[in-house]
Specification:
The complex is a heterodimer of chains A (313) and B (459). Chain A is built from 13 helices and no strands. Chain A is mostly helical. In chain A, helix 3 packs antiparallel against helix 5. The longest helix of chain A has 29 residues. The radius of gyration of chain A is 24 Å and the shape is elongated. By secondary structure, chain B is an alpha/beta fold. Helices cover 48% and strands 14% of the residues of chain B. Chain B has 17 helices and ten strands. In chain B, helix 2 runs parallel beside helix 4, helix 10 packs parallel to helix 12 and helix 16 packs across helix 17. The N and C termini of chain B lie far apart (95 Å). The chains are: A mainly alpha (313), B alpha/beta (459). Chains A and B meet through helix 1 and helix 4 of A and helix 10 of B.
């Protein structure tokens, strides 16, 4: 046979597909993801931003909500991107396209999209006057540390949904599977519902757990006051025992001596959570797990999409 | 004293039903050319019945469901009625039974089809299976009429003219053009072999525009996929003397394929679509100017120059088809295959398209196209290849030659009449596929025995 003719390799093909994706960002109105991210982040910060990084309860709730925003953004970024053009991929793969280049191009494109969305969330948080801690535990800059955490959460969710998109054959199936993944992430994170036994072990598989952990650690959860105990006690002020109101007496004493802040901080000190410890190693562990998730799902996506040739007519 | 009250009528009925069903299945198996004793094995007999009537998958599911039911019944018996699990097991068993009934009905529906009977018979088969088995098994007027292909029933080796012709050309590889030597293309449905194509040999010289003709299900797309190497067959396919299967990694760049459905990203411009195709498919050492020049050539040939900055999704059906062709043509393939390129296009645009394909063939490629409306462009073709399903539902070669010879061979005036002649009677055709398969094979065998005639046919 004639001499072997070389065609574009993996890196060159990645560039070609990346160019195509950026063009389609404009033509296919993918840019709508950006105002959507701003809208959803604005709604969440409006609802939970007031007590974020001020009290332990507000921090956990706020971090969980921000993680949900990232999860939502990530899932929606790529849930349909592969499955909607599966027949095209099949033909192009048969004509010489490398699946690794195709997935690689999507990973780069999605990473940039996730970075933009992360930037928007940080910006909205700043506009909403959320009081971030003064220093970051890893880089020294809390904005950078928070941005890395938010980016990794969004990107990990993005990679999971891209894997789903590689697995299913059409967009309808993708949109059917997505809510189940969302439910799995939220329920099995252990942040929404207290889990025990085998269910608790599954929490390590969720990005929500690692996301909330990293954000709470960055927010200095363990050094924040705890208010829920005071709020509960306040409800029982009028309880009478033998004509006395002991709860009212205690609360009034604390207020009269202006010891409330000290009391709340002491409550917080008794309510520390070792997983939210503000240490570099703790935060890096969380980031490591999320990076591992990203790498794992990227590999699974490639392996799944390599089976595209087996699609029936 | 024996009392009628003690007599278990239901038990007797069950035994009666089992015996009659077994006997009925035994006879049905015999009518289908299978061994009757297989009807004696519960569960397995449904699988064999499904195999007889070409719904093997349903048979396997039925068999597995029955197996699970047995396990559950034993588990229920062991746990006892008082056990907390009993209710769950019974409920699960009920669901399984209903599911199995559905699958059995599908098998019985297959029985009705194979025996050429109305599906109303399911009303009997469903509730009173033994009665259905009895009637279909023992009824003299109930004979299978639509049995699937059984290789054991194929003509005795050495007497089948199609096979003789194929065997005599198994090593005849043309150094130029396309040579297809396809022994068979089989799919395995569970454990059963199903022949999709068999004994197909033809050659196509370079610079030819070829029509691949045949009714629905004749195996046209299967043949194309086999040639392309997408669904490899037990075959040797040579393009200009090079075996496509053995050198697939290189050959895939030398073959263009335009499927029926337009595989284009709508949200990209026409020019960028072609440019990306050029970057991916043209050799890596092609210069930027060489690539641009090729894109310009392709756009010129296909009439895409105007509006090339517009989005693909905004273009008409005919334009999109031409863009599809353009993305494949960009690498200047030696073999160019199109699956119904004119589907959804009106007559004028379809003709324009085929004229462009004619030009592409003139430039040196082999262009092989499937179309269901060939007569409006019949004179443009150099060669026509006709496929048809024989009585065993296997796709076979009926004819390969010039369009004028095809009309003469089939005794018809148009390509559509040829398709009608080979289509089954149930599809509104004349059902003469077997006749023409044999006629063509005998003709080719005669030509093979006199080399001068064969040389004429290749010119």
């Amino acid at each position: 046979m004639s001499e072997q003719i070389r065609h574009k390799g993996r890196i060159a093909q990645t560039g070609i597909y990346l160019g195509k994706l950026f063009r389609m960002f404009i033509y296919q109105n993918d840019w709508k993801m950006i105002p959507m991210a701003a809208l959803i982040a604005g709604m969440v910060t409006f609802a939970v931003g007031a007590n974020m990084f001020k009290t332990q309860e507000g921090t956990v709730g706020g971090c969980f909500s921000l993680v949900c925003v990232c999860l939502w953004n990530g899932f929606f970024n790529s849930i349909q991107v592969i499955c909607r053009e599966r027949p095209i991929i099949k033909r192009e793969h048969r004509a010489g396209m490398h699946i690794t280049s195709y997935i690689g191009a999507h990973m780069i494109y999605q990473a940039i999209l996730c970075m933009i969305q992360t930037g928007i969330i940080i910006l909205i948080c700043r506009i909403a006057n959320i009081r971030f801690p003064e220093t970051g535990a890893v880089t020294g800059n809390v904005t950078v540390d928070s941005a890395v955490s938010l980016f990794l959460i969004t990107y990990a969710a993005d990679m999971i949904s891209m894997t789903i998109s590689c697995f299913v054959k059409n967009t309808t199936a993708a949109m059917t599977v997505m809510p189940f993944m969302l439910m799995f992430e939220l329920i099995f994170s252990g942040e929404l519902i207290y889990l025990t036994g085998a269910a608790k072990k599954l929490t390590v598989l969720t990005i929500v757990k690692w996301g909330v952990m990293s954000l709470c650690a960055l927010g200095g959860y363990n050094s924040l006051p705890m208010v829920s105990l005071w709020n509960q006690v306040w409800k029982f002020r009028k309880v009478e025992i033998h004509g006395y109101q002991p709860v009212k007496m205690i609360t009034d004493k604390i207020l009269q001596e202006k010891k409330l802040d000290e009391f709340l901080l002491q409550c917080g000190a008794y309510n520390t959570n070792i997983t939210y410890e503000t240490t570099t190693s703790n935060i890096l562990t969380c980031w490591g797990f999320m990076l591992g998730t990203i790498a794992l799902f990227a590999v699974i996506s490639i392996l799944l999409l390599k089976r595209v040739d087996k699609d029936t007519r | 004293m024996f009392s009628l009250r003690d007599f278990d009528f239901y038990f007797v009925y069950r035994i009666f039903a089992i015996l009659i069903t077994t006997a009925g299945f035994w006879m049905i198996f015999k009518k289908c050319g299978k061994k009757g004793w297989r009807a004696l094995i519960p569960g397995f007999r449904y699988y064999k019945l499904a195999e007889c009537v070409d719904v093997e998958k349903e048979g396997v599911i039925c068999m597995l469901l029955e197996l699970v039911e047995v396990v559950l019944t034993i588990a229920s018996a062991v746990k006892g009625r008082g056990s907390g699990y009993y209710g769950y097991l019974a409920l699960f068993n009920l669901v399984l039974l209903l599911t199995e009934l559905l699958y059995r009905l599908r098998i019985f529906s297959g029985v009705c089809r194979v025996f050429g009977r109305n599906r109303k018979w399911l009303l009997l088969w469903g509730p009173v299976t033994w009665a259905g088995a009895l009637i279909f098994g023992f009824g003299k007027h109930f004979q299978p009429v639509n049995l699937g292909y059984n290789p054991d029933n194929d003509m005795v080796a050495g007497t089948n003219p199609a096979k003789i012709y194929f065997d005599s050309h198994i090593n005849s590889v043309s150094p130029e053009g396309l040579t297809v030597i396809l022994k068979d293309r089989i799919v395995r449905d569970m454990t059963k072999k199903r022949y999709l194509l068999k004994d197909i040999y033809f050659t196509i010289p370079p610079r030819s525009l070829v029509l691949l003709l045949g009714g629905s299900g004749a195996g046209k797309t299967t043949l194309i996929n086999a040639i392309l190497g997408y669904e490899k067959a037990n075959a040797s396919i040579y393009l200009n003397g090079v075996n496509i299967y053995d050198n697939y990694e290189q050959m895939k760049y030398r073959i263009g394929f335009v499927p029926q459905q337009d595989l284009l990203r709508g949200h990209d411009t026409v020019y960028n679509t072609l440019q990306d195709a050029a970057k991916l498919r043209m050799p890596a050492n092609t210069t930027s100017s060489g690539r641009k020049s090729r894109i310009a050539d392709v756009m010129g040939v296909l009439g895409l120059s105007e509006g090339s900055t517009g989005l693909v999704s905004k273009k008409s059906g005919g334009m999109r088809k031409r863009i599809s062709i353009g993305t494949e043509l960009i690498s200047d393939p030696e073999l160019f295959i199109l699956d119904e390129p004119d589907s959804g296009l009106d007559g004028v645009i379809a003709r324009e398209l085929f004229e462009k394909l004619r030009d592409i063939a003139h430039q040196g490629s082999i262009v092989l196209a499937i179309t269901h409306t060939p007569d409006r462009v019949a004179e443009l073709f150099d060669q026509v290849i006709v496929l048809a399903r024989d009585s065993g539902r296997v796709g076979r070669l009926v004819f390969s030659g010039k369009p004028s010879e095809a009309k003469e061979f089939f005794g018809k005036n148009s390509m559509e009449e040829i398709v009608m002649a080979i289509n089954k009677k149930s599809e509104g055709g004349e059902g003469r596929a077997d006749e023409f398969i044999e006629k063509y094979s005998r003709l080719m065998n005669e030509r093979s025995s006199s080399p001068e005639k064969e040389a004429d046919s290749h010119e």
